Amino acid sequence: MAITKKILDGITFYPANYCINSALGTYLKYYDVDLFADIVGRYWEFVLGVDHGKGFFSEEMVRYRILPTINTYMELLEDKYGFCFTFKRLEKSKELLLDSVRDCVKNDLPVILGVDGYYLSHYDSYHQYHGLSWNHFIIVYGFDDATEEIYFLDLTRSFIDGPRHTLDYSIFYEAVFPQDDIYQLTVDMATIKMEKKILDTVASSAQQVGQTNVDGILKETDQEQIYFNQDALRQLAWEFEQLAASSDSYAREKLLAPILNQIILISQQRLANLQHWKKFNKSDVPQVEKSFRSWEKIKYVLSPRRRIDIAEKYQRCSVYINDIIKLEDRYYAT
């Protein structure tokens, strides 16, 4: 007897700052693996890259960039956890799309797909403007042929409208294959399967949280690198102080932009450190929690929506960074 409806159990929405992280976190949670606590909090750290060069008026200027010191998610999950990633190239056909989704769900595999938010009623750009289909990712976890609907989870407005939604088959097809796709992009459907459960309960310590093999990464580049701990934080605090004191901070602010744009990523990584510690040590670590809150304060102050005097804005950032230095000095010395 043909299966005409199936909704997967055990799909728990995973909140994160980006749709791909949320989709991946939701999928991993299906296998009892926590994206933050097991992966990001255990294996992520940062290297602060400093590129020296000539700037305005031939003065020596410094440009910054941050490099996460990790393997790709896929490599890490395949090597450490026994996951198998499968990507299927989809033909531009409504029936083939639906058949592919049905087959995966019938085999207890959720589906990660990129969609155009123009077709999602809860999305900011609904019926206003189109976006590239791979700019937004959702998790499909069910279908119903009787109502002709697919069931999916989405990060967008999840704390307002909830993460669970349905979409008509025809609209779902249009969202995956937008009619005005001027780029003529190919569409892939991704599934993840855990071949063997090797997630263990290895005893963790403060030294293990966030540690990575930084030396190997440093050797791969000729540019000066600073491990994103105390030295890098002190340099960043100094830059914030210079911005606060400068009457014309545009040039220096522009050079800091690559770091400022990734503050959200650093705060997310510190949150993951905290979750990893709590999961494996069954206890709180106040230094990491306070460090995370300080990164969140920096992110808040730097938000374009906050109308704060520029000198006050960067002075606050300098104070928060110095707070983090004191906290993480004790944390890494544990």
Q: What do you see in this structure?
A:
This protein has about 325 residues and is α+β, with helices and mostly antiparallel strands. It has two domains: about 5-15 and about 85-190, Alpha-Beta Complex (Cathepsin B, Chain A), CATH 3.90.70.30; about 30-75 and about 200-334, no CATH class. Helix content is about 45%, strand content about 20%. The chain has helices at about 20-30, 35-45, 75-80, 95-105, 160, 170-175, 215-220, 230-245, 250-260, 265-280, 285-300, 310-334, and strands at about 5, 45-55, 60-70, 85-90, 110-115, 135-145, 150-155, 165-170, 185-195, 225. The strands form three sheets. Strands 1, 5, 6, 7 and 8 form a five-stranded antiparallel beta sheet that branches. A three-stranded antiparallel beta sheet has the order 3-2-10. A two-stranded antiparallel sheet has the order 4-9. A hairpin with a 4-residue loop joins strand 6 (about 135-145) and strand 7 (about 150-155). Helix 2 packs across helix 10, helix 8 runs antiparallel to helix 12 and helix 11 packs antiparallel against helix 12 (about 310-334). The protein is globular and about 70 Å long. It starts with a strand and ends with a helix.
* Distance between the ends: 61 Å
Average pLDDT: 76
Instruction: Report helical residue fraction.
Output: 40-55%
Given as residue ranges, the uncertain stretches (5+ residues, pLDDT < 50) are 196-223
| Major beta sheet summary | 5 strands, antiparallel
Radius of gyration using CA atoms only: 23 Å
Number of helices: 12
Content of β-strand? 15-25%
- Helix/strand/pairing category: alpha+beta
Number of domains: 2
What is the string of SSEs from the N terminus onward?
EHHEEHEHEEEHEHEHEHHHHH
Shape, per Cα inertia axes? globular
Write down how many β-strands occur, each being a DSSP E stretch of 2 or more residues: 10
